Amino acid sequence: MTTLSPSAAPGTLRYQLAEFWGSFSASRGALVGLLFITFILLIALFAPWVAPHDPALQNRDAFLVPPVWHAEGSWRYVLGTDAVGRDVLSRLIHGARFSLSISAMVVVLSMAVGIFLGLLAGYFRGWLETVITRLMDVVLAFPSLLLALGLVAVLSPGLTSAMIAIALVQLPYFVRLTRAAVIGEKDREYVTASRLAGAGHGRLMFNTLLPNCMAPLIVQATLSFSTAILDIAALGFLGMGVQPPTPEWGAMLANAREFMGSAYWAVTFPGLVILLTVLMINLMGDGLRDALDPKLKRS
Amino acid sequence: MTAEAVIHAVNLTRHYRIKSGPFAAPAVVKALNEASFDLYPGQTLAVVGESGCGKSTLARVLTMIEPPTSGELTINGHRVELKEGEPPPADLRRDVQIIFQNPYGSLNPRKTVATMLEEPLKLNRRDMSAAQRRQAAMEMIDRVGLRPEHVDRYPHMFSGGQRQRIAIARALMLHPKVLVLDEPVSALDLSIQAQILNLLADLQEEFGLAYVFISHDLSVVKRIADDVIVMYFGQPVETGHAAEVFSHPRHPYTQALFSATPVADPNRRKERMRLQGEPPSPLSPPPGCPFAPRCFKATSECSLEDPPLEPVSAHVNVACIHVEKARLTLRP
Q1: Domain B7-110+154-318 adopts which CATH fold?
Q2: Tell me, what's the pLDDT at A121?
Q3: Residue of B nearest to A212 (CA)
Q4: Any chain B CB within 8 A of the CB of A299?
Q5: What is the DSSP pairing of strand B27-39 with strand B7-18?
Q6: What is the distance in angstroms between the Cα of A185 and the nearest Cα belonging to chain B?
Q7: ipTM score here?
C-alpha cells in the first residue's frame, strides 16, 4: 500500500471519498447534522476559551438568575444560573466535553470488543458462536438502562464504571451486526481465494472480511453514539454517573429538577442540548447509511 | 507415467452430512464418488456434466478447500493429508490454484488489484521485498493483458473479462503447476470468452500449466481438452481421451449430453435425444446405476448394481453394462 502512486485517478482513496461525499451531501438532514456535530465538537474542544465563566464557580449573589431575555436577566449570565449560582451556558459548554468524550470512548470500547466477538462468532461458528450469541441474548434480555444501573451500582458510581456499563449494554448490537455481516461474506469466493493463497484465520478475519463488513458498523456506531449520550445523561440524572461538581448534561438536569416550576431555564437548556445533539447525530447516521448502503449492493 | 503426473487421484470421494431435522439421523449426500485420474503438466483435463453432478465438489477437493472423505490425492508427488476445516499445507497450496466462475465474487471489493496480486507473495514468499512484490505484480498484470495503470484500481471499476484476467493473474502469482478452472468463462460474453480461453491457452504453453477445466459448455471443452471426464450424479460415467470421447461417445448419458450441444448450422437436422425426468435426489439415490431411471437403454439389470468404470478401448473407460467391453486388457 505504501508504494501506491499519489494520483487522484479513479480507484484511489480520494476518488472513493469524493464518491462518498457526493451521496452523503445529497441528504440535507445529514449535512445539517454534520454541521451541528462539528460545531459542538469545536465548542467542546475549545471549552475553556469559549465559556464565559468557570463551570464550577458558585456566585453567592446570583442564585437562579434568569436568561438574558427576561427583565431580571443580564448579559453576564446569558442562559441564567442554577440554584448555587453557576452559569448554565458555561456548564453546558464544558458538559459537551464530558458527554462527547465519554460517548466516544463508550462507542470505541463497545465497537472494538463487539467486532472482535462478532468476528469470532461468525467466522468459527460452532459452539463458540452459540456461547457468544447466547451471552449477548442475555444482555439484550435486560432493559438496557436497568442493566447499566445495576452494573454501576456494583462497580461503584463514577465515570469509569458508567462507561464500562454503557459499553456493555451496547455490545450486543455490534456483535450481532458483525456476526451477520461476516456470515454473509465468509462464503464468498474472494475469501476462499485468500485462504488458498495461504491466509490464516487472523488475516482472513481482520484483513479480508472486516473491511467488507464495516458499512453497517459505521452506521451503528453513530447511532450508538447518540444512545450513549442519552444513557450517560440518564445515569447522571439518577446520580450514578458523573459525580458533582463535574458539569454533565444529565446531572445538570437532575440538580435543577426541583426548580422546574420556578426556574425553567436550569432544566430546559440541558434537556434541549441533549435532544438536539442526539437528533443531529441520528440525522448524520441516516445520511451515512444512505451513502454507504448502495455501495454494498453494488459490489 | 504416474511418477511425473502432477495430480494423481485415486477413488476421490466426498460425502456431505446433511441434518434433516433435530431428531432425524443426518443424511449422507454423495457429492463425489470414486473419481480417479492422472493429470500431466501441460495437459488439460475437462470435467463435464450437468448442474449438481459434483464438478464443483471435485474442484474443492482438488484445491484442498475440503478434504476428500476417502480416496487418495497426490499432488506433485506429495500425498495430501488434510483435516476438515484446516488450511491447505503451505508447500502444496502453491502448486494448485483455482479460478472461480463468477469474477464478481472472487475479487475482494475493498482491495486494489496490486494488493490482491501481492497477497499470495506476502504470505508465501517472505524473502521478497515490497518493491520486488510490486515488480512481480506489474509483470503479471502485463502478462494477462492489462495495463500498468490498472493495478491501483478497485475491482468494481473493471468489466467481467478484465476481472477474470485479474483472477488469473492472482492465481499465477505463485507459479502453480495446476490451475483448477471452475467454469471460468461461463459468466462472460461470448467474445470475451474467446479472449480468456486464448489467454489461458497461451499461459498454459508458457508456464507448462496443467488445467482441470470444469465446464458444462461442451463446445468450449471440445476445443481445449486433452482428456475428459463425464460426470453424472457425482460419479464419472465416461473418461478418457477427449478426441475419442467426442467423436465416439459410448455411455448413453454422454450421448444425450453431446446431442444437446447446439451446432451453428441452420441446415443440420437436429437429432436430439431427450432425457426423461430429472436427475435423482441425492438424498435417495436409485438402486443400481444412477442413470438407469432416465436412460433409453435401461433394462431391469441396470438397477441391480452400480456399474464400475471399465475400459472399452485403449484410452476410454465407460461405466455402463450395455456398452461392449474391450477385449484387450491393456488396463487392469
Answers
A1: Rossmann fold (3.40.50)
A2: 94
A3: B110
A4: yes
A5: antiparallel
A6: 10
A7: 0.82
